[in-house]
Amino acid sequence: MKSVATLEHNDNIAGELEKYISSNTPVVVKGLRDFPPLNWTIESLEARYGNVDIRIVVSDSQNFVYSDKQERTIESMSLSEFIDKGIRNLGADGKYYALGRGFSTQFPGLTEEIVLPTALSQFFSGSGRFLERNVWMSHGGTRTALHFDAQENFNVQVEGEKCFWLYPTENKSMYPMKMNSQASYLSPVDPRNLDREKFPNFSTSAGYEAITSPGDMLYLPYGWWHQVDTTGEQNLNVNFWWVPRWKLIRYWSQTLRGAFVLAHRAGKHPHKRAQEQAANKTN
Ligand SMILES: O=C(O)CCC(=O)C(=O)O
User: Fold this and answer.
1) What distance in angstroms lies between residue 220's CA and the mean position of ligand 1's atoms?
2) Distance CA 270, CA 272 (A)
3) pLDDT of residue 219
4) How far apart are CA 88 and CA 80, in angstroms?
5) Which of 18, 218, 9, 242 is nearest to 119 (CA)?
6) 228 CB under 6 A from ligand 1?
7) Which of 136, 151, 165, 216 to mutate to test the pocket of ligand 1 (most atoms within 8 A of CB)?
8) Which end of the chain has less neighbouring CB within 10 Å, N or C?
């Protein structure tokens, strides 16, 4: 496994980072400055937003694995309830919880704080670049299943550490779930616990590792597969997703899978609609 390259935050960091973005190569920027979320803690967010209702991912273990039949199980609860069940009393009710993809817009006033440092602000200028900001929170020890996102990603660590195992967009032996499944952006492979009989072509040597500590920002390129482990008692993280125009065409297979996942979520996947029409005819 190779290590992802690192850069130090400096006033000219954008130019250095641009080379990695244009070659779709991951890199970690260390020592981020001028970034308000680095002052947050889970407790300070709870004090501000404890009563806010959020969507929480629920699992039977800290290994958050999804199936092709059901993308993932979601429950709605207040931030305080989540922190109680998922962080302060880990596993006490036999379930495990994580705030993954917690839209910043659910927390009034937070989006304004999740703003890239001035030295990096050029990346979101220009029109048509959908930008989503998320808050991630969990007890350490979680594992997020191997998947890719059809977006560019800046992922910043605030509390605890994350260990990313990354595989290039072009890698052909990732065993993605079926295109017509709910989760065609996911792979059933667990690279940290590899089943060689089931997945003989999976290449561990194709992987890269990036460990991020508070103040580190991973650039996770469009379509790169990633499995993520968290450490520490508490894990807090924010990320930015945005759309690169030319990569949508260059990595069309990822783009297509991403579009099908969105269609599934909206109930408009062609396969799902065909099934529904067939069911209606027989009724
Ligand atoms: O932190 C995690 O568990 C997953 C993060 C992730 O998948 C992402 O930022 O795209």
Assistant:
1) 10
2) 5
3) 97
4) 10
5) 9
6) yes
7) 136
8) C
Domain boundaries, the chain: 2-282
Q: What is the number of the ligand 1 atom nearest to the C-alpha of 235?
A: 1
Distance 142 CA to ligand 1 centre (A): 11
Query: How far apart, in whole angstroms, are the C-alpha atoms of residue 32 and residue 44?
Result: 20
Give residue 244's pLDDT: 85
Q: 186 in ligand 1 pocket by Cβ < 6 Å?
A: no
- Spacing, Cα 276 to ligand 1 middle (Å): 33
pLDDT value of position 93: 94
Ligand 1 centroid from CA 128, angstroms: 23
Q: Tens digits of per-residue pLDDT, 66-79?
A: 766 666 788 999 99
| DSSP SS3 for 86 | helix
Spatial contact of 152 and 117, defined as CB atoms under 8 Å apart:
no
153 ligand 1 Cβ < 6 A: yes
Which CATH number is correct for 2-282, 1.10.3720.10, 2.60.120.620, 2.60.120.10, 1.10.10.10? 2.60.120.10
Structure confidence at residue 261 (pLDDT):
84
> Do the beta carbons of residue 42 and residue 234 sit within 8 Å?
yes
| Rounded average pLDDT per 10-residue block, the chain, 283 residues | 96 95 96 95 96 93 74 87 96 93 82 91 72 93 94 96 96 90 89 95 95 98 96 94 89 91 79 67 64
Half-sphere exposure of residue 216: CA atoms within 13 angstroms, side-chain side? 20
Ligand 1 centroid to residue 228 C-alpha, Å: 6
- For ligand 1, is residue 155 a contact (CB within 6 Å)? yes
What is the structure's pLDDT at 67? 65
The pLDDT value recorded for residue 131 is: 83
pTM confidence score: 0.92
